[in-house]
Amino acid sequence: MTLMIFLVMFVMESATEKLCPLRASIDVLEGEYFFLCYLESRQEHFQEEAYTINWYKESAGKRQLVKETHRIASQMNFLEFWPAELSDSGNYSVIHSNGKQNLTIQKWTLNVLERNKSSCFNKNHLTTEIKSAGTGHSLKCSDLSIYENESITWYKDCKNYEHETERELNFRTLTVQHSGIYTCKILISHEGRIYHSTNTIKLVVEEDAAEAVTLEIVGHHEEIETEIGKEEILNCTGFLGYYMQEDASLYWLINQTFPEQCTGIPENEPSVCEEEFKKLQLGNKFYVTRLLRIKKVRDEDMHHNFTCMLQADESTQIKIVKLKKGKTQDLPVHIFTTGMVLALLFPFVVVAVVFVFVMFRVDFVLFYRDTCRRDDTAGDGKEYDAFVSYLKDCASPIEEEREFALKILPMILEENFGYKLCIFERDVFPGGAFVDDINSFIDKSRRLIIILSQNYVSDRAIYELESGLHKALVERKTKIILIEYMPILEKPSVPHAGKAYQDKDQRAL
């Protein structure tokens, strides 16, 4: 009895192996019956510990448990779609759980292709086989269902082909006329409804014998220059020929050890991981490719052999990639050029800034004071910003000179700019000693504004000029601002600056 059970299970497992090719990426047409299946090792049949089987779908970065519906059903090692829809596209996985740990058995990427309403097939859902004329060949209808007694029909270029109903379409001798697109259609009855599943093959028969194609890995052994801490992605691509070989496998080894699979989640990604196996078709040539992702190159990675292996039709090809520390790279050209341009422009920019500052220094100072609300003269003990010295009697035949000193100058400096002026006739009370008052108010002022004219240098106001020059040149207590209101024909007899210094030294003695 035990032997009988073992034989039955062995037969079931053999059938499962036949129906479950190891394909990481699968394409299927919408509206067709389809199934996913996985293989269990023989030891799992005899495990005494109970476990559960759950199917999951990952879409948009979220993994959700696949629940059975009237359209999606789980049976033994199979997940069936009655039928497949566009929304079924995504990444699928099957997980065994015994309540203590979860074990991922297999993963797939399912692509549900939109049906071409004007044709019986989708150009993205076919395989190409290139054969030479004069040879025998057979087209095989892939295992599209797990049920028996299905009805099989073959079509050539979407027309019924010679009423063939066998799973294989045999050609004793191929001719160019046999070229075409062949589609096998399987009808399946389920719960009173008829579903179908198709497989399409493009057969190309060439008149002359085609050149023999050798399985090979694109590129040769290589060394890649890199740096510690840098991310590196190693690419391995294998050329299969002019038709897709379903038994082809491509994988990486690190010192004869299999790397972990990439999870797609950056924070949980292993330091070195292998991307999913992908198939490519460029024209009538077929390729397989797989990436090895090194998150951050370590020093020990420089001593590893990263080996890519391609296997198909009992043939094996390898490619070895090694990492080595690269030479220190020169400064990039665009950065060097930018630096040189900036270095050449910098002196011109400095000169321009200095020129603008010199030309508008007063405006900058006023703007600074207005913006920061700061006055550098606060606390210097001065009461006035400037003492205005001008012609004080009516000796001047031009009245505008006094009007400039008493009206225009205060209106501009006091009312518009907020300076405080000391004007003798306005701010000094009468009755005091003239000379003492003049010296006192000049000492209280930060500047001495002298409005020069021919009448001014001929008047007694010349004393204010002499006193101001003495304080500016000898005592260095104030600064003088000269305004030539009218041209001076005769030079005033003002003591020379050197004489003023000499007088000061004599007084000191």
Automatic annotation (TrEMBL):
<dbReference type="InterPro" id="IPR035897">
    <property type="entry name" value="Toll_tir_struct_dom_sf"/>
</dbReference>
<dbReference type="GO" id="GO:0032729">
    <property type="term" value="P:positive regulation of type II interferon production"/>
</dbReference>
<dbReference type="GO" id="GO:0016787">
    <property type="term" value="F:hydrolase activity"/>
</dbReference>
<dbReference type="GO" id="GO:0042008">
    <property type="term" value="F:interleukin-18 receptor activity"/>
</dbReference>
<dbReference type="InterPro" id="IPR013783">
    <property type="entry name" value="Ig-like_fold"/>
</dbReference>
<comment type="similarity">
    <text>Belongs to the interleukin-1 receptor family.</text>
</comment>
<dbReference type="Pfam" id="PF01582">
    <property type="entry name" value="TIR"/>
</dbReference>
<dbReference type="InterPro" id="IPR036179">
    <property type="entry name" value="Ig-like_dom_sf"/>
</dbReference>
<dbReference type="InterPro" id="IPR004074">
    <property type="entry name" value="IL-1_rcpt_I/II-typ"/>
</dbReference>
<keyword id="KW-0325">Glycoprotein</keyword>
<keyword id="KW-0378">Hydrolase</keyword>
<keyword id="KW-1015">Disulfide bond</keyword>
<dbReference type="InterPro" id="IPR003599">
    <property type="entry name" value="Ig_sub"/>
</dbReference>
<dbReference type="GO" id="GO:0042007">
    <property type="term" value="F:interleukin-18 binding"/>
</dbReference>
<protein>
    <submittedName>
        <fullName>Interleukin 18 receptor 1</fullName>
    </submittedName>
</protein>
<keyword id="KW-0677">Repeat</keyword>
<dbReference type="GO" id="GO:0004908">
    <property type="term" value="F:interleukin-1 receptor activity"/>
</dbReference>
<keyword id="KW-0393">Immunoglobulin domain</keyword>
<dbReference type="InterPro" id="IPR000157">
    <property type="entry name" value="TIR_dom"/>
</dbReference>
<dbReference type="InterPro" id="IPR007110">
    <property type="entry name" value="Ig-like_dom"/>
</dbReference>
<keyword id="KW-0520">NAD</keyword>
<dbReference type="InterPro" id="IPR015621">
    <property type="entry name" value="IL-1_rcpt_fam"/>
</dbReference>
<keyword id="KW-0732">Signal</keyword>
